[in-house]
Amino acid sequence: MLQQSKVSMQCYEVGINKTATVETSANRLQEGYHGDTSKTFLCGNVSDSMKRLVKVTEECLQKGIAVCKDGALFRKIGKRISEHAEKFGYGVVDRFVGHGVGTVFHSEPVIYHHRNDKSGCMVEGQTFTIEPILTLGSIECVTWEDNWTTLTADGSPAAQFEHTILITRTGAEILTKY
């Protein structure tokens, strides 16, 4: 879908916009288990501010993964992502969350990517997604009538990266490598 002006895909949509980014999301069912991943790509003539947004969003995903291990609090993910995003003046969309994956595609736990005070600890063997969305402007979102396409309310660009991870005793294994 061709987008107009400076509108960016936020979640679960593949599109090209005039700011020259493409956000893809893919999921796969293999042997009864789901996986989920997404990545923002740069295409064509991209401004330095967009390049920085995409780079920092991917860094936020990695920083969120880095705090994961058996016994760690889920809220550490949002804290770490928010701290890094805020260093660059970016907003973290709070409307979309990561989620558990396994034999059920969207399940517990709910993973918040912004600062929060939710309870809950990671347990060895859990699988879930971390999928932060950062924006250059408003973190508020508008969803089109198709109940699928979602944009920032002010039309500002956004970027998203996502991995499905497995919690281990000492860390996290990325199950969806690009």
TrEMBL record:
The cross-references to Gene3D superfamilies, in alphabetical order and at most eight, read: Creatinase/methionine aminopeptidase superfamily
Please give the InterPro entries that the UniProt record associates with this protein.
Creatinase/aminopeptidase-like, Pept_M24, Pept_M24_MAP, Pept_M24A_MAP1
Asked if the record carries the keyword rRNA-binding, the reply is no
What UniProt keywords apply to this chain's record, in alphabetical order? Aminopeptidase, Hydrolase, Metal-binding, Protease
Every Peptidase M24 domain range: 29-168
- What GO biological process terms are annotated to this protein in UniProt? proteolysis
- Any one GO CC term of the record: chloroplast
What domain of life? Answer: Eukaryota
Keyword Electron transport attributed: no
PROSITE patterns hit by this protein: MAP_1
GO terms (molecular function) for this protein are: metal ion binding; metalloaminopeptidase activity
PANTHER family, per the entry: METHIONINE AMINOPEPTIDASE (PTHR43330), METHIONINE AMINOPEPTIDASE 1B, CHLOROPLASTIC (PTHR43330:SF1)
Its protein name is Peptidase M24 domain-containing protein
Protein species of origin: Camellia sinensis var. sinensis
